[in-house]
Design goal:
The structure holds two protein chains of two kinds.
Chain A lengths: L2 H5 L2 H5 L2 H5 L4 H4 L4 H31 L5 E5 L8 E5 L6 E6 L5 E5 L10 E3 L4 E4 L4 E4 L5 E3 L8 E7 L2 E8 L2
Antiparallel strand pairs in A: 1-10, 2-3, 3-4, 5-6, 6-7, 7-8, 9-10
Chain B lengths: L2 H36 L4 H32 L1
Helix pairs in contact in B: 1-2
Amino acid sequence: MADNEKDGCVACKKKSRWREDFPVEWESDNYITRREMVKFLALGSLTIAGANFVLAGLPHLAKAAQLPRTRIGLASSLPVGGSKLFAYPTEEDPCILVRQANGDLVAYSQVCTHLSCAVVHNEEENALFCPCHHGYFTVAEGRPYAGPPTRPLPRIKLEQQGNEIFAIGVEVG
Amino acid sequence: MSTRQTQGTTLFTALLALIGIGVVVQLWLLAATVDAVLRHESGTPLHAAIGSGVVFAINAVLVLAVFNFDRRINS
C-alpha cells in the first residue's frame, strides 16, 4: 500500500496526470494585488486624460483645415425666392442656396440636424422645410423654429465675384 | 500583522478608493466631452479636458504617495 493511502490522502491519489505535467494554479494566476490595481488605475487615468485632450483639440484642428473654394453658379440665374442645390465641401455634402426676398443669398447644408433628411426650400412659408418630421428652419439664419430639430443648419460661407458665386467655408452652430 | 502594517493596509485601501473615484470622475468628464464635441460646442471640451488633467495630476500624486509609503514600510 502506498504511503499516501496510509495517510488518507485521497486528493493525492486522485490527482490527474495532466495536473502533474502542467502545475498551474489558477487561483494564484488570476490574483490581482492592490499594487497592480493602483498601477492599472493610474495608467487608466492617464489614458482618459489624454483622450479628453485629444477630443478637446479635434474641433480646433478641423477649423484649421482649409476648405476648398467651390464655384456654385451664376447669381443672375437665381430669381428672388428661388433655390439651387449644390455639394460642398465634398460631393457627399448636399447644400442649398436660396435667394431671399431682399435679394441676399444664403446657403446651408441640406442635411437636417434632426435625423439627416434633406431639407427643401418652402417659398410660401419662407422656410427651409424637412419633410421627414416637419422641421422648419428660418431662411435668414438657418435657426429651427418648428418641429423636432433643435440645432441650426450649418451655414455655408459665400463669396460673390462679379456674377459668380463661390462657397468658401462652413460655419457650424 | 504589526500596527504599522495594519495602518499601511488601511492607508493603501483608502488611497486606492480615492484614485478609483478620480478615474470615475474622469470617465464622466470624457462622456461630457464626447457629448459636447458631437453638439459642436467649443467651450465645454476644453474645460472638461483641463478638469481631467487636474484629476490625473491628483491621482499621480496619490500613486506616488502610495509607493513612497510602501517603500518606507518595506525598508
